[in-house]
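Checklist before submission:
- one chain only
- standard amino acids only
- sequence pasted in full

Submission:
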Amino acid sequence: EQAVRLPPVERMALVERILDSLDAPDPSMDALWAREADDRLAAYRRGEIRALALSDLLAKYRVSNPA
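Returned file contents:
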């Protein structure tokens, strides 16, 4: 209730502060992603997975924009 009554500039500052708090580093999550990246690279080098061209990947998900 109190936040809703703040002036727009102060509400925006509050929102930014809350969003910044969600972006706090998490060392355990960073370690998990590093391990995942290492595992994927190793699988690629063993020939278990293949790389795709970025342009092909983007084309797959591109939505045509009717003008």
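Reviewer check: The chain has a mean pLDDT of 91.
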